Amino acid sequence: MATDVAVPALGESITEGTLAQWLKKPGEAVAADEPIATLETDKVSVDVPSPSAGVLSETLVNEGDTVAVGAVIARIDENATAGAGDATPAKEAAAASTNPAGAGENPQLRGSEHAPEPAQAEGTDEHVTTLSPAVRRAVLEHHVDPSKIRGTGKDGRLTKDDVLAAAQAQKSGGPVHEPEARAPAPAPASAPAPAAAPAAAPVQAKATGERHEERVKMTRLRQTIAHRLKEAQNTAALLTTFNDVDMSAVIEARGKYKDLFEKKHGIRLGFMGFFVKAVALAVKDIPSVNAKIEGDEIVYHDYLDVSVAVSAPKGLVVPVVRNADRMSFADIEKTIADFGKRAKEGTLTMDDMSGGTFTISNGGVFGSLLSTPIINPPQSAVLGMHRIEERPVVKDGQIVARPMMYLALSYDHRLVDGREAVTFLVRIKEAIEDPTRLLIDL
Fold it and tell me: Does the domain at residues 1-98 carry the CATH identifier 2.60.40.420?
């Protein structure tokens, strides 16, 4: 008896997704509710579970295909045993399986979407056989053996970070040498010596003269990011105001209480908690920064849902810390840490990223000194944090070194006036430079 595997509901207003990866191959046994494929939507990746136990008998779509909610993408044979099903995947994979060595083609020079899976060493884990295009590309680029890398992704799958870490470790253990060129075999003793060739210009080695291009289809998430950012530029009257903040007081507070904080709450005390609290304080004075435009009306919120930009393998995502104005430092830090972990694992849900009334983006973790962030529609403002570095500043008539951070507030000038934007940023500066204000609501 064969059971159809259909695309599950993907969230409100989402009618289709892209089949990002098959996690099982035809002929492999599957358990009930075991993920057999990954779908990529506009915001998150969703696993497609098997509706029953059995064997994956056939796949009906290829990786990269767009599929509608409810569409049948595979079939499960509940009476078959492993190995009895169709041993060929969908059409493209079937073509690849008939030419595993690339038919004379150099696999390192092919696009990642068509590169073969690295051969699995005997006794290694199954996760090696399910490399995503990004991971496969990293493996080929850095010349590492995926069978020797322990994956940290979901179900032990390799991530791009795993490959990069392995490549770094490989480099630190000694230089990686290219194979030496093999000397031509000597001519037989009986063969006459070849005539001397006329002098010619030196020929550049082929390897150093080759140049290659790779075309990789944009993921659905990347397309959505591109569309929304361009929409923000086309719709909003974007403007950015800047300020800098002395981080001495916050650094001192973290240094004094971080051990006690971690011991009590089980989470490290970071900078983000201070900034979320500072934003919550500032929006009380400047509510338009936490508002949005709908038609010809301004919608003000009496709550603060902060979208926190975090990095995921397939792009930037912005999960929402809800009711942040009512949360403690510990709750804020725990929520953000959980979002970061789940973003790397690809387990964030649609609900995690829906809504949001204000955004904080911390480019400083990547080394950014200054930037002009773009708002996340329909929000009206985004706060950009940057790296902390010691700079000379004047304090009490003396030039001293202080740990300084540039702050940037990009805002929709249709809703937020320049005076309001500057005042909002000054309120944040005051709260960060004197964290006591956060405790006494000043």
Answer: no
Q: Would you call 339 helix, strand, or coil by DSSP?
A: helix
CATH superfamily of 237-440: Chloramphenicol acetyltransferase-like domain (3.30.559.10)
Q: Are 136 and 127 in contact (CB under 8 A)?
A: no
- 142 has catalytic annotation: no
Contact (CB, 8 A) for 76 and 50? yes
What DSSP letter does each residue of 82-144 carry, written as one string?
Answer: TT-S----SHHHHHHHT-TT-TT--GGGS-TTTPPPPPPPTT--GGGG---HHHHHHHHHHT-
Which of 4, 155, 351, 417 is labelled catalytic?
A: 417
Please state the length of the chain: 442
Lowest model confidence (mean pLDDT) among 55-59, 243-247, 304-308, 349-353: 349-353
Question: Which parts of 343-424 are beta strand (E)?
Answer: 358-362, 381-385, 388-395, 398-412
Q: How far apart are CA 67 and CA 49, in angstroms?
A: 15
Catalytic hit among 4, 285, 351, 413: 413
User: Roughly what angle, to the nearest 10 degrees, separates helices 418-433 and 248-265?
Assistant: 70
Q: Region 246-261: what's the mean pLDDT? A: 93
| Sequence ranges of the domains in the chain | 1-98, 106-173, 237-440
- Asked whether the beta carbons of 106 and 77 are under 8 A apart, the reply is no
H or E stretch covering 243 = strand 238-246
What's the pLDDT at 432? 96
Per-residue model confidence (pLDDT) at position 308: 92
β-strands 72-77, 66-68 pairing: unpaired
Q: What is the mean pLDDT of residues 77-83?
A: 73
Which has more pLDDT, 328 or 105?
Answer: 328
- Surface-to-core class of residue 126, CB atoms within 10 Å of its CB (0-12 exposed, 13-18 middle, 19+ buried): exposed
301 is catalytic: no
Confidence of residue 12 (pLDDT cuts 50, 70, 90): low
